[in-house]
Amino acid sequence: MTEVSSAMPDKNKRSRMWSYGSSSVVSTLFFVGILIFIALIAQQHPWRLDFTESGTYTLAEQTRNLLKSLEQPVEIKGFFPTSSAEEQKAKDLLDTYRYYSPKLSYTFIDPDRQPDVARRYEIRNYGTLVLEGYGKKQPVSVADEQNITNGLLKLISKDQKKVYFLTGHGERSSASTEKRGYSSVRSALEKENYLLEEVNLMQKGEVPADAAMVIVAGPEKPLFPEEMERLGKYLDSGGRLIVLLDPFQDGGLRDFLKARGIELRDDIIIDESVGIFGGNYLMPLAAQYGVHKITENFQLVTFYPEARSVEIMNPLPPGIQAHVLASTSEKSWAETNLKLLEKEQKAGLDLKEDLAGPVPLVVLVEVNNSKPARDAAAKSSEGKGASKGAGNEKKDPAADLRQGILLVGGDSDFASNAYFGLS
Q1: Residue 193: which of 140, 115, 246, 233 has the closest Cα?
Q2: What whole-number distance in Å separates Cα of residue 208 and Cα of residue 205?
Q3: Minimal CA–CA distance to 77: which of 114, 51, 50?
Q4: Which residues contact residue 102 at a Cβ distance below 8 angstroms, ignoring those fewer than 6 apart?
Q5: Which residues is 196 bridged to in the sheet?
Q6: Which is it for the CA torsion 335, 296, 153, 206, positive or negative?
Q7: Are 152 and 187 in contact, with CB atoms under 8 Å apart?
Q8: Which are the contacts of 42, defined by CB distance < 8 A and separation ≥ 6?
Q9: Is residue 328 classed exposed, middle or buried when 0-12, 13-18 and 19+ CB atoms within 10 A define those classes?
């Protein structure tokens, strides 16, 4: 009996150990099963949390909605030096984009190791992205959310914005391949999915309704009052107008621009700082750029062959805001003594007559309330012989709620075929 009783605890102990062991195995298998189940769900319905303080891996709602709307595959090619910090940063961002859309993919290409591919895509700078899809290509110069999302919008957009070049006054032609022509500008804009056409406002009663922008590039003859009236109506109704004027040729637009806060002087800019580049002192350079969305990524020096000053009036007319986008160095000035220049003598700065540097080269005007600008423009146009009955035309009641944009540059050569590739 003693032997039997002593064997009983061992048997019970083994039974309990087996019971605990089997329970442990079952629990382990159950836990592993849960992990597999979660992994399968995550594979079909992935989710992620952004714990970074700045929200690095969180996209704006508009971007997420855009990515969800992609109906066709989009491939992004990023041109970065291999293993660079910029490449890794772009990869992290593109991973986030791909997370929200399986139709988006990306690859990275080192321009130095694959120069043939870089040439094919016309890559000039590290950090450039090229979006391909929907039968189009869309370059993006800065790898951040705003620029990538804008690039995607352009890529999938079915509507092409139309840019009109004014003709009839000796302006630069977007069709001309000569040195003075703008065919390089045309090609660049077409790659950005714009349509380009020319317009003669003496033949057409108004700026076309589908105009996304009108460009007046280097007119050699004055515009007629009727044309300025039509441009003014377009601008004051929320249009976009670019005016590029060379020294001593204002295209008859002096009063038109003055009504919108821009003062034109009869001068030409002299820049002594270009000597370090071996350039002509009549080719000023801009190394200072204003704080604006247009110039926020500008890092290069830009050149403007034979340019004039473009001043912002003080005070500005009511409803007008103005920003200097580009200006020359402090070693420059706007020269008014043309006789010295005609004798091929280098003039000197005269503080009584000349405008000392930095000299404003490019100015942006925002027409926030179009009524004062219309009234001022109409008043100045009357003095020029414009139709006095123009002010009685029926106005669009929504016109005052839209913001017109006017960009004025003191040179049209910089965008010509001869200088298009120069910085």
Answers
A1: 140
A2: 9
A3: 114
A4: none
A5: 163
A6: negative
A7: no
A8: none
A9: buried
**What is the rounded distance in angstroms from the CA atom of residue 207 to the CA atom of residue 195?**
15
How many whole angstroms separate alpha carbon 225 and alpha carbon 218? 18
Q: Letter for the amino acid at 272?
A: E
Within 8 A by CB and 6+ apart from 345, the residues are: none
pTM of the model: 0.66
Closest among 361, 339, 342 to 350, alpha carbons compared: 339
Q: Which secondary structure element, helix H or strand E, spans residue 91, and what is its range?
A: helix 85-100
Distances (CA, A) of 90 to 125, 133, 142, 292: 15, 19, 10, 24
**Paired sense of beta strands 161-166 and 194-199, if any:** parallel
Query: Which tokens in the block code for residue 98?
Result: 């791909």
Between the alpha carbon of residue 276 and those of residues 271, 272, 273, 348, 380, the distances in Å are: 11, 9, 6, 19, 44
Cα atoms found within 13 Å of the Cα of residue 96, Cβ hemisphere only: 21
Q: Among 96-110, 122-136, 274-288, where is mean pLDDT lowest?
A: 274-288
What CA–CA distance (Å, rounded) separates 346 from 270? 9
3-state SS class at 184: helix
Q: Are 399 and 232 in contact (CB under 8 A)?
A: no
Which residues, including other chains, have CB under 8 Å from residue 150's CB and lie 6 or more apart? 140
Residues in the chain: 423
- Here the tokens at position 376 are 């001022």
Is the pLDDT at 23 greater than 80, yes or no?
no
| CB contact at 8 A, 358 and 329 | yes
Per-residue pLDDT reduced to its tens digit, 64-80: 999 999 999 999 999 99
Q: Angle at Cα 95 formed by Cα 92 and Cα 98, nearest 5°? A: 155
Nearest Cα residue to 391 out of 235, 259, 232: 232
125: amino acid identity, one letter:
N
Query: Closest by alpha carbon to 107, among 72, 76, 142, 151?
Result: 76
Residue closest to 403 by CA, chosen among 257, 217, 160, 241: 241
Name residue, tokens 């706007």.
Answer: 334
DSSP state of 174: T
Query: Does residue 416 carry a pLDDT above 80?
Result: yes
Listed residue (299, 307, 329, 294) closest to 406, CA to CA: 294
Pairing of strands 310-312, 404-409: unpaired
Phi (first) and psi of residue 128, to 5 degrees: -80, 140
d(CA 174, CA 12): 98
Using DSSP's 3-state secondary structure scheme, residue 38 falls into helix
